[in-house]
Amino acid sequence: MRRKHHGTAEEADIDMTPMLDIVFIMLIFFIVTTSFVKETGIDVSRPQASTTERQERGNILIAIKPNGDVWIAKRKVELRAVRANVERLHAENPEGTVVIIADKEAQTGTLVEVMDQVRLAGVYNVSIAAQNP
Q1: Shortest CA distance to 114 belongs to which of 55, 73, 62, 43?
Q2: Rounded to an integer, what distance in angstroms lies between the CA atom of residue 84 and that of residue 57?
Q3: In sequence order, what E strands does the chain have?
Q4: What confidence tens digit (pLDDT) does each residue in 11-45 have?
Q5: What number of other Cβ atoms are within 10 A of residue 42's Cβ?
Q6: What CATH number does residue 119 fall under?
Q7: With contact defined as beta carbons under 8 Å apart, do 57 and 35 qualify?
Q8: Can you give the residue range of the structural domain that contains 119?
Q9: How many domains does the structure of the chain reveal?
């Protein structure tokens, strides 16, 4: 009589659950701590100024093109709609400041009108972007 030897060797399984938990937690951590770069959506040739100061926190960016077009959050807006857009963006982030990036060929009147609309929206911390020489 022959006995057949059936091995009952357990298969070595690796439990992946703890590793997946750690990877998921790290993913959430990196998403939450990532700072996103905000852009106006257009290229503007800024004027040069020797007395510029670097401002790290410009949360609402407004661009003015040489032809007078106003851009906020990568979309063109009418001058009369600047106030409503700034009010909405400022409500989302009350600590935010406004940075106006006007092209050096843009009309001064358009810049003043945009600044006026921003102040009417309740934001008094307004900066004008310039380029270091």
Answers
A1: 62
A2: 21
A3: 60-64, 70-72, 75-77, 98-102, 126-128
A4: 677 788 888 899 999 998 888 777 665 555 555 55
A5: 14
A6: 3.30.420.270
A7: no
A8: 60-128
A9: 1
